[in-house]
Design goal:
The chain is of the alpha+beta class. It contains 14 helices and 25 strands. The chain has a five-stranded parallel sheet. A five-stranded antiparallel sheet has the order 15-16-17-14-18, with helices on one face. Helix 2 crosses helix 3 and helix 13 crosses helix 14. The structure holds flavin-adenine dinucleotide (FAD). Flavin-adenine dinucleotide (FAD) binds next to helix 1, strand 4, strand 8, strand 19 and helix 13.
Amino acid sequence: MADVRALVKGEFEDSTDVVVLGAGAAGIAAAIAAARSGARTTLVEAGSLPGGELISGMAVDGALNARGEWILGGVGRELFRECEDAGGFVAALNDFRLIWYVCIDPEVMKLAVVRCLARAGVRLLLHTVATGVEVEGRQVKAIHLLNKSGRTRLAARYFLDCSGDADLVRAAGGEVVQGGVYGELQPVSLMFKMSQVQTAPLLRFMIEHPEHFALGESEAIRQGRDDAALAQAAVRQGQPTVFLKGDGPLLSGAISSGAMYPTALIMIQPTAPQRGEVCLNTTRIGEIDGTRTEVLSGTVKPLVDQVLQCAQFMRANVPGFETAAYSGISHRIGVRETRRIVGRETLLESDVLGARKRSDAVAKGSHHVDIHQSGAGQIRIPVAGGGSYDIPWGCLLPPALDNLAAAGRIISSDRGANGSARVMGPCLGMGHAVGAACGLAMASGQADLAKVPVEALRARLLSEGAILNGTH
Ligand SMILES: Cc1cc2nc3c(=O)[nH]c(=O)nc-3n(C[C@H](O)[C@H](O)[C@H](O)COP(=O)(O)OP(=O)(O)OC[C@H]3O[C@@H](n4cnc5c(N)ncnc54)[C@H](O)[C@@H]3O)c2cc1C
């Protein structure tokens, strides 16, 4: 009989006021807001750095509406300021296609996230996986954690699921759904960066050949202008904010000839002008369930092949990229879609598209319904009038559990609404809301987060700089 020897031996008991599971956009904002309100806050993250997609190179969508008005304030904006103060590029830019977004330097954002968490007094547990949850009736009592030091039972008063996969809600017995009605899932992607890109020739190429680029897909952005005028406006903005479209002659020709893999777009956005660096969001493998670790791990090799293929395509075909250098991949494979919670309320696609406003809003969104499909497909439907919609408190509350809330891409939403609310602006706003709610609940000795008066929560969020009113 084999002698089984454990690699991990320690058994620990610990306690805190608030446990936040997952240090992506939602979890970071949640932990900062909770800790700032006086709660002892522990942020648990399986990876090696806090940040999630916020440090992958992609731009933050849904922080402004398509009219260029800010709809994100509070903790999210503080992270941008911290990044800027540390010398990082942060710019609100028009993509001249569908949205305004915030382009950031992911390398400096890594520093900013760590500094903001530390300043708020958040206890960070990296390299730590949640393996279980203890539930008694409607209350979560403790979360079970595993890392190299051993196993820890971490008891807390409040739990925030910011795992991107609703791991905690699901394990605690809350209802979750996944993907579309036929189990469809958005593709996974690996973001990558190229440096020493020349912006002027790239934008000149767009002026000379607008047919290759996605421009003015909503009236809020187009404002009656033709493609040439939009390309001229992009030149005046002076940043490499361009989208090569999969059905344009250049990219579709390359896809047909096999020089490129099928993709809807090559989305190019600046990350660090001082390095002439851009992030390219384009690689994709469809219908992958990101909660199946072995399947997800199997995508990294084909995604890396796509990175090399796309870098080669850009150098050979796109002015400004002739001498550009590959300068890095994201720290993780990007998973767009897994589970969503079924909350007390559900955000609907019609709420998003109709820019619906609510008196119980605790965050906002503005991104178009954006559902990537396998191959070259993508659904993109803009919000009415380039406006914003409200995210009600009930969308973050699983009905069967009192001291557990959720934030981020797992928000209770139908698939269309999730195609919008999943982006990082709303994730930051929702995180701020659930963190602040824990602070209010703790101060009043309330064990049920749903009983935190939404007017008090809104007042707290507004006092902390959140934007909840007064935008289109
Ligand atoms: C390829 C791609 C492109 C995108 N493009 C954009 C874009 O351009 N702009 C934009 O704004 N948004 C974009 N999005 C959407 C957006 O990035 C995500 O939806 C958003 O970042 C989700 O944030 P989150 O905090 O909910 O989850 P995540 O960022 O996924 O964070 C969850 C964290 O929880 C941790 N975790 C999960 N389970 C456990 C566990 N059991 N134990 C411990 N830790 C755990 C994970 O390691 C992870 O760090 C894109 C997404 C992808 C994948």
